[in-house]
What does this fold into?
Amino acid sequence: MVTAQEQVTSGHPPPPDADRPTTGRRRWLTRRHLQVAIGLLWLLDGALQFQPYMFKAGADGLLGPLAENTMGRPNMLTDVIGTAVNQFGAHQALYNSCFAAIQILIAIGLLWRRALRPALALSVAWALVVWVLGEALGQMTAPQASTPFGAPGAALLYILAALMLWPKKDDVEPAIADAGLLGVRGSRWAWAAVWGGTALLELELANHSPDSISAQLAHQADGQLGLLAALDRGAAHLLAGHGVEVALGVLVVQIFIAQGILRGPTRRLALGIGIGVALVYWVVAQNFGGIFTGQATDPNSGPVWVLLALLLWPRRTCAMNHEKT
It folds into this structure.
């Protein structure tokens, strides 16, 4: 193996995160593992953007969901999204191809170490655009917004992941995110703020209707694969009439996930529950982001929640002679 020092001596600068100081131990999860993971997510996003549905003109294609983002939103947000939709509609195929290319470019940069930092920076900028225009602030201004169905938006979580993955210094901290741009406190408080903030969405009156959760589940069964459609209908039937109980349950669990990370004794428990809850949301409420419908632009927030939890997880080590992050 060529070390970072040997690369410098030979005149070739080492790539970001090439070799780290020897600690005598090797961790089972490294920053590089998760950089590759988020790179693969971006690659999937880019591939989904090339689906035929995305190139259909008018409301029968991508413009339909984008136009829906202007309904019931604050006036300023409606104006911004409306302007973008009009511009996009004039050259839909060209713009959509550019969108896909940007996401694939981000993925390539994340998978190729020498382009890591520019790719992370581009991912933050592009995710911000998607969060505002494509997700309408993660649907948090929409009626019945809730974490199970995608709030606060996958794009916002991509931004947090990029900041935590940024190779700021040697990765010798207990959690990978501790060595990122947000630091120890910043990364933990970001997790707490997003989980806790979206938990408060459950206090909206729209989420307290007895059939609010069951109606959403039944509605999204349309167009899903047979097994997922059956799961949606079964869950809708099971939860019918229990909208208030579900909303309060989501509120309590998410508040614990948010607060638990701030205290050492409950940190792993909170992160573990966060992973489990995110996976339940992803399968039952988000149907894997609808990627089997031919109309999804990303796999939704579930996988990114898991990625964030792994970034914040206090790692255990096993005896090895070298650590490469």
Remarks:
- The first helix runs from residue 4 to 9.
- Residues 1-24, 317-325 have pLDDT under 50 and may be disordered.
- Residues 124 and 159 are 5 Å apart (CA to CA).
- Strands lie at 25-27, 317-319.
